[in-house]
Structure formats: structure tokens, C-alpha cells
Specification:
Length: 428
């Protein structure tokens, strides 16, 4: 076993390198290469391209609501997570397995603590953005007349800045979790690596910061919050589908509001699925011995899989949008046709121009409130008037139910204007 110390070591009596036990065995190098470089690299490529396309599609929205602004911010944050994961997870296994990229390996050894912290900052930001966009959707769907400022784009911008600053400050202690050490790598030969420092291995630090605070801020708190919000959104979605079924409009004709709610439900579910292993990994690193993290041990493999799950979560939202949103698919097709053929004449229907629902405009030269000229009004008999009165009453009742349903579906667009006017009045 190679000797590891915190100062320069005497390696004069060290056996040749080929007689020492390697830090990473060939089987572990192959595992890391397949899991991180091959599978994780594929997630990174698909995720970056998907997040760019998602940002372009969401930018086509004309309503400027908080939900879509936060989804765009989430796409940017997820892209930064993926970019920071490439030097941390994807590239170094290439050297360990193939021997290539030796120059990068030296860079990786020297800057590992900084690469790790630069990954955790956007990682934390993405977690909070997921909670924030879910909270915004919850207020828009379930409590449209409460805490109206949450649904404003201007307020959403401020919240994004606040949580970005918090993500930086919160992760500062991560810079001190590792320290430089020297190991013998043959006779009179040492190499410089990083291992967890006394600060990073301190039991109080591991319990208070890595478990309790991490649970509240990075995992358990957001997961519990998202689970509750997801439950409420699912209830609202089911209630809306039942109402539409009673109206005879079909469960799948809920418009873009149902579309957007379904997107958020699936995004939250994927988040819960991908982030749960990372929290379990934090607990295992604390309760198990340090040797359990070594190559060949179960924790070594589990940590790698949980890290790739985080990359998967940051790469998957675009594909969730495609699977759950018809409007998203239509606008994506418009963008693809524009860059391929130079026009989108076959897809430029007015109702497809935005992700948000617009009220239909009747194509008529006469206003609905106008009364036809007297010579155009037919003369009705008494029986016809009674029958017409009953029919009109039925139509009025049906139209009232239809308008009530449409009013609940237009919360994002109509309520946005009302909220902005209220806020201007309050500020004045």
C-alpha cells in the first residue's frame, strides 16, 4: 500500500512502480471510463444541445410570465452544471483507462477541489430554481389570488439573483474539504494529489454541514417541498381534467395551462428520482469508514452512479418538455424548419405563436354586443318565443360554465396583467 502523508516523504526505499499497488485498478478504471466518460459524456452532449433548444423554444413565449422565465433560467443553470461536470467527471477517466490526456490529468490533480466546488455552485442553483418554478406554478394554478407578486417576472428575476448569490456563499466551505498531499510513486519519486483534509473529515463538519445543512438546503428540504407541491399540482390537474370531462370537452383538451402543469409534475418527479441517490451517498460517506470509498468497494461504485444521476437530471428537462407538451413540440418544429428551410409558413398558425393560451377572437364585422337592425329581426310567434327562451337559457348556462373554465385556464396571462396593475397602484 502506498504511503500517504501531508508533507514531503522519503521514497528512497520505495519499490519500483510496477511493484506497488495502483491507486485505481484496471477494473475500476474501466468502470469509471464507461460510467463517466461514455454514459455521462453522452448525457452531457444530449443535455447541452437539449438545454439550448429548450431556451430557444421558451424564448418564443410572448407572455413574459414568471414560469417561463424561471424555466429559461433553469435551462441556463443546468447547462452550467453540465459544463462544470465535463472537467470534473468526464475527461480524467480517459487518462486512467487509456493513458491519453496526461497533461490534463496533471491539471486535474492540482485543481480538483476548485473543480468540485465550481460544480456544486450551479448544482445548488438548479435545485433552488426547480423549487422556485414549482412554487410559482403552484400559486398560478392553486392560489391565483394569493401572494400575487410571486407570479411577476420582475420578482422572479430578483429571486434568481438572490439564490445565485446564496449558492456561491453556501458552497465556500467546499474549497477547504481537500488538501494537497504527496505519495511515493517509485524510488525517489513522489507525486502530488488531493485527499480529504482534516477539516473535510471532521466529524462535526460532516454531521452539521454535509448531512444536516445539506439535507435542509440541497436535498431533504427541497425534496419534501417539491413532493408537496407536486401532490397539489397533480390534484389540481386531475380536478381540471374532471371538470373538462363533465363539460364534454375531453380530458386532453385542457389547453396550455394543463400542458404547463403536466410539464412541472414530470420535471419534479425526475428531480426526485435523480437526486435521492446523492443524499443517500452523503449519509454513507459519513457513517462508513474511509476505506469504504476505495476502489473496488461498494461505495466507490455507488458514488459514481449517484454522480451520473445528477448529470442526467440536468440533461433531461428538454426531453420532458418534448414528451409532455404539444405546444413545445410545435414551436420546436417551427425553429427547426426555420433553420433548415428558411421559413415556417406551414406551421405559423396564430394559436401556435406562443406557449400561453390566447382567447379566441371571432372573425366578424359585427360586435357581439351590437343589436341587428330592426328590419333584420325576425318576427316570432308566442310558442317560438317560449321555446327560444328555454333554449337561450340553456345556452347561457352552458356558456357560463365554459367561461368559468376558460377563466381558470387563463390565470397566467390574465392574472399577470391584473397583478402588474395592482402592484403599480400599490407602489404608487
Amino acid at each position: 500500500m502506498k504511503e500517504v502523508t501531508k508533507t514531503m516523504v522519503d521514497c528512497s526505499n520505495e519499490p519500483p512502480t510496477n511493484e506497488t499497488q495502483p491507486l485505481v485498478t484496471s477494473s475500476c478504471a474501466l468502470f469509471d471510463f464507461m460510467v463517466f466518460t461514455v454514459i455521462g459524456g453522452m448525457f452531457c452532449i444530449l443535455g447541452l444541445s437539449g438545454n439550448i433548444l429548450a431556451y430557444l423554444v421558451l424564448s418564443r413565449d410572448q407572455s413574459k410570465t414568471a414560469t417561463f422565465y424561471l424555466l429559461k433560467s433553469l435551462a441556463v443553470s443546468d447547462s452550467v452544471v453540465i459544463i462544470s461536470a465535463i472537467p470534473l467527471y468526464i475527461l480524467d477517466p480517459i487518462h486512467l483507462y487509456t493513458g491519453y490526456l496526461s497533461g490534463y490529468h496533471k491539471f486535474y490533480i492540482k485543481f480538483l477541489p476548485y473543480l468540485y466546488t465550481c460544480f456544486l455552485i450551479p448544482f445548488t442553483l438548479s435545485i433552488f430554481l426547480t423549487v422556485l418554478v414549482s412554487l410559482s406554478r403552484y400559486y398560478a394554478v392553486c392560489r391565483p389570488f394569493s401572494s400575487l407578486r410571486v407570479c411577476l417576472t420582475e420578482s422572479a428575476r430578483k429571486y434568481v439573483i438572490y439564490i445565485a448569490m446564496f449558492s456561491i456563499v453556501y458552497n465556500i466551505p467546499r474549497f477547504f474539504e481537500y488538501q494537497k498531499v504527496f505519495i511515493c510513486d517509485g524510488p525517489n519519486k513522489t507525486v502530488e494529489i488531493f485527499e480529504t483534509s482534516a477539516f473535510g473529515d471532521n466529524l462535526a463538519y460532516r454531521i452539521v454541514y454535509a448531512i444536516i445543512i445539506y439535507f435542509i438546503i440541497n436535498h431533504g428540504g427541497p425534496l419534501l417541498c417539491l413532493a408537496l407541491l407536486n401532490y397539489k399540482l397533480i390534484q389540481a390537474l386531475q380536478s381540471r381534467m374532471k371538470r373538462r370531462a363533465l363539460m364534454g370537452k375531453g380530458a386532453n383538451s385542457g389547453g396550455v395551462q394543463q400542458d404547463t402543469t403536466l410539464i412541472l409534475v414530470v420535471v419534479i418527479f425526475v428531480f426526485l428520482l435523480c437526486h435521492t441517490p446523492t443524499f443517500i451517498d452523503q449519509i454513507l460517506w459519513t457513517v462508513l469508514e474511509k476505506s469504504a470509498r476505495d476502489c473496488g468497494k461498494g461505495l466507490y461504485y455507488y458514488t459514481a452512479i449517484s454522480d451520473v444521476c445528477v448529470i442526467l437530471n440536468s440533461s433531461g428537462n428538454f426531453y420532458v418538455y418534448i414528451l409532455t407538451s404539444k405546444k413545445f413540440r410545435i414551436i420546436l418544429a417551427q425553429i427547426c424548419c426555420k433553420y433548415r428551410f428558411g421559413n415556417t409558413s406551414s406551421l405559423t398558425e396564430p394559436e401556435h405563436a406562443t406557449l400561453l393560451h390566447k382567447s379566441p377572437v371571432h372573425n366578424s364585422s359585427m360586435s357581439p354586443n351590437m343589436t341587428p337592425p330592426i328590419h333584420m329581426t325576425p318576427i316570432k310567434s308566442q310558442n317560438q318565443e317560449v321555446l327560444s327562451s328555454k333554449t337561450d337559457s340553456e345556452h347561457v348556462h352552458a356558456e357560463a360554465n365554459h367561461n368559468s373554465l376558460n377563466q381558470s385556464e387563463n390565470v397566467d396571462s390574465v392574472e399577470q396583467k391584473r397583478v402588474e396593475s395592482l402592484v403599480v397602484a400599490m407602489d404608487a
